[in-house]
Amino acid sequence: MTTDPMAGGQGIPWQRIRRAGIVGIPPRSVIAALNQHGAEIHDLDEPLVMADLETATPFLPTVYCAILRTAVVNALHCQLDAIFIDTGAGKCDAARYTAQILRQRLAIPLFPTENTDRERLGNPISTSGLPLLEKLQRITAGVKMAGPPVDSPPFVAPTASFWGVPPRDFAILELFPATTHVHGWTRCMENKTPADHELEMVTDPTVPTVFFAQSFCAKTALARHLAKRHPHGLYLDLDAHTTASAKAKVQAFLELSGARP
Amino acid sequence: MKLGDFGTSYTKLLDLTAGDGTPKILPTKDLPPDLVVDWATGHNGKRCARHYINELIALARGGETLIAKPDFLLLDCGSRDIKFIRYADGRLKDMGWNAECGASMGFTIELLERYYNLDRTRMTVPLQTFSVTCGVLGMSDIFDAVIAGVPVAEAVASFVRGIAVNAHRFAGEPELIYLSGGLCDHPVFVGSFPCEVVPLGRSVLLSGLAATAARPDPQTS
Predict the structure, then answer these.
(1) Interface ipTM > 0.90
(2) Which of A49, A113, A241, B30 is least enclosed by beta carbons within 10 angstroms?
(3) Residue A237: closest CA among chain B residues belongs to which residue?
(4) pLDDT at A3 over 60
(5) What is the rounded CA–CA span in Å between residue A204 and residue A207?
(6) Is residue A161, in this structure, part of any structural domain at all?
(7) Average pLDDT rounded to a whole number, residues A136-152
(8) Which residue of B lies nearest to A252 if distances are taken between CA atoms?
(9) From the CA of B93, how many Å to the nearest CA of chain A?
(10) ∠ at Cα A243 (A238, A246), nearest 5°?
(11) CB within 8 Å: B99 and A251
């Protein structure tokens, strides 16, 4: 396991951190330390509170990544003792700027991390026959644990693929068949190597693939590029919510590709 | 078997077991509340049908039936949105559905023509193209042009031309477009595309419904 210097723990009051927020995927050493000290981990990338997304507007522009806007809303409303926000190659520039803004505006300590973990822990969930929604729920829940999941669901042959980041709104995932494999950054998440760009670029050219990115995210360029090069790819971006037209596009793509559930 | 394409402004109904095969077109706002068809598509179709497929699937199936070529781009311009499907080597290659930015253009054209009492068949393709982001924002250009002395028909035609140019760009700037929807009978709209256009009329989605219903294992959504 590779750790970054900050995450070594010097200067971090682990004992005082009972409730920690994380943005992106901090290094496993950080998660392990939080687990070891019994801290409750909250994944701020997911919608955790009922507060309107617009409450992030004093901090971030309205036209900005909905995941980071969600993280800001959570940071404002969850009672946290500290926040660990990954700002390295495994996350994005926007997270780095968000970290700077939150650091100046919040009363709690904020620790930027740079996850350079390289040890691949595998992708049993990504290649399993679990419903796609459950796959992503399990993978995203896994960021709170330093190790791999306890059980590995069995492999199924794919009939479709979902490439990209976990969407802010998981509703789009319900449209895919359970035989959908997961690729892209979500696969890197499960693998505990979020900065593994080689793994992120892996696609399956034999099955219809939806290349997804959050609107206003730099990964939209990569998603669109890969979709164009893929023999049967569909580029899709979504902001805060799944629109009816996005649902229709995915339904039509899967139906007309013969990958329907 | 009864089919229905329940659009935002107009509903196209076709009974495959009765009549002469000509669709009946009604304003959607005038539909009887108890109307039920066997197969439907369109924004308002789900609540009126035993089986429903979304518009992109209906458009694709209609294109497969009516065009019957391995490579084609089919663009549907409706009241509320524009959508396209592109086939290459007989397989779906790309698609798009513009329902947010760029929306409500067809509806806006109809509103403007009614408000200004314009006959679309007597309008000509203008030289000027308005940059139309969406139906609502595009109207500002019309009003500004009219204030500046441009004849109303010419200003509206420039707006329509802007929509055609946008739709062409949205579809990936193909050299040939098969056109579906109510704007097929709009001479200015059809004549404003910077490419060859083959209008297929308003029944493409109904053809897609018929093709879907005839499949051995039709999928609904």
Answers:
(1) no
(2) B30
(3) B96
(4) no
(5) 6
(6) yes
(7) 92
(8) B57
(9) 7
(10) 70
(11) no
